[in-house]
Design goal:
There is one protein chain. This protein is mainly beta. The chain has one domain: Jelly Rolls, CATH 2.60.120. About 0% of the residues lie in helices and about 55% in strands. The chain is built from 1 helix and 22 strands. The strands form 4 sheets. A 7-stranded mixed beta sheet has the order 1-20-17-22-15-13-14. A 7-stranded antiparallel beta sheet has the order 2-3-4-11-6-9-12, with no helix packed on it. Strands 5-10-7-8 form a 4-stranded antiparallel beta sheet, with no helix packed on it. Strand 18 and strand 19 form a beta hairpin.
Length: about 240
């Protein structure tokens, strides 16, 4: 087993006033040659957007973009005609493919919206753009690792993307232990602690820490405190 530990305090950071963003991997003005990507995982941004503010209309192509809100309400509009609001518990995916434009705005003026923006390299370029979102309750995620993202064409659950990647979310009680078996032994897993403290294969992780794991078949996970955990299994090539 090989691991790479990214402590929360080592992330890139940019505060634009309306946007406060932490970057696990190189993004915009933050560049680290050792932190370009983890396999197919290209971007993991931890964003807080002020009330009434947001990202104006901008283009993307050939990227699978996943948004996971943790508080507030994020309003989405795109060139496919989708107009949606995503909130805590929702997982949204946008396959940019041949090209798409979209905007993201804090729907509320009196509170912030917090969300994770995650980019995954697709396995196939220039696919037809698509949009999807699903809601997952805390009960569904309680003391389990619930699949919330899976490859298109599988029956593994969650929203689907053009990549052989699986995301799992769990809300774990203190001292709860479980394991995660990789779908493909050639893949890697990037674990990100949203809240709380966990150990993965003996490595202690705290809030907003990330751990990349390769050359492992199974992960042994234990919650040290009440914790929320995101696992992202992705191809490494």
């Amino acid at each position: 087993m090989k691991t790479i530990l990214h402590k929360a305090r080592t992330r890139g950071h940019a505060n634009h006033g309306w946007l406060d963003s932490y970057h696990t991997f190189s993004f915009a003005g933050y560049y680290d040659t050792e932190r370009i990507h983890f396999g197919a995982l290209r971007v993991l941004n931890d964003d807080t957007v002020a009330g009434g503010m947001g990202f104006g209309t901008h283009p993307h192509d050939n990227m699978e973009i996943i948004s996971i809100p943790t508080s507030g309400a994020l309003e989405h509009e795109d060139s496919m005609g989708n107009q949606q609001v995503i909130r805590q518990g929702d997982v949204q995916v946008m396959s940019a493919g041949t090209g798409i434009s979209h905007s993201e705005k804090n729907k509320n003026r009196d509170q912030e919206v917090e969300f994770f923006q995650i980019w995954i390299f697709p396995k196939q370029k220039n696919v037809t753009p698509r949009y999807d979102q699903q809601h997952f309750t805390d009960t569904e995620k309680h003391n389990t690792l619930l699949t919330v993202v899976s490859p298109i064409g599988t029956k593994d659950g969650g929203v689907q993307i053009h990549q052989d990647a699986w995301f799992s979310l769990g809300k774990l009680d203190p001292d709860f232990s479980t394991h995660y078996t990789l779908k493909n032994k050639k893949n890697g897993v990037y674990a990100f602690v949203i809240e709380g403290d966990v150990t993965i294969n003996g490595q202690l992780l705290n809030r907003r820490d990330g751990l990349g794991i390769t050359e492992a078949d199974i992960l042994h996970i234990e919650a040290v405190s009440s914790a929320e955990l995101l696992l992202m299994e992705v191809p490494m090539q």
